[in-house]
Design brief:
binds zinc ion, 138 residues, 10 strands, 3-stranded antiparallel sheet, 1 helix, Metal Binding Protein, Guanine Nucleotide Exchange Factor, Chain A, mainly beta, 7-stranded mixed sheet
Length: 138
């Protein structure tokens, strides 16, 4: 990425709007774990950004957090239910990052998926055929 610009995202009903700079973006990936599939309805794709880089245009108070594991929480719109954030706030190494749903971002994002993660947990109803690396962890 050569040029710096603001990425913007929102939930389906637009109650939640957020933005961040396209800097220090890390590990754009599609997660096939059971939690992500259950939560999103299919595969959940995210990019990690510095937590401090995330700013809200509106709706931060409308976000509900679901603690699906003891070390992480999942943020979604309390009105329309859009799956927006995954935050490992209980892990010292990761608590200063937050994973943002790629599907919530307005194009063009300039982001490309790098790999598939937790593919051992993938559903039996689809194949992964895009040629990207497949891992059984993150
Ligand atoms: Zn919403």
């Amino acid at each position: 990425m050569t040029q710096t610009f603001q990425l913007t995202g929102r939930c389906l009903c637009s109650a939640v709007e957020f933005s961040f700079e396209n800097k220090n973006l890390d590990h754009p990936s599609a997660c096939h774990c059971g939690q992500c599939r259950q939560w999103s309805g299919h595969v959940w794709a995210t990019v990690n950004i510095p937590l401090a880089a995330l700013t809200f245009g509106k709706g931060e108070a409308d976000i509900k957090w679901h603690r699906a594991s003891d070390f992480a929480r999942r943020g979604f719109c309390g009105t329309c239910g859009s799956s927006l954030f995954w935050h490992a706030d209980g892990l010292e190494k990761h608590k200063d990052q937050i994973a943002v749903a790629l599907g919530a971002l307005k194009a063009p994002t300039g982001i490309k998926l790098e790999e598939h993660i937790f593919v051992a947990d993938k559903g039996d109803y689809y194949d992964i055929a895009d040629g990207l690396p497949q891992k059984n962890n993150n």
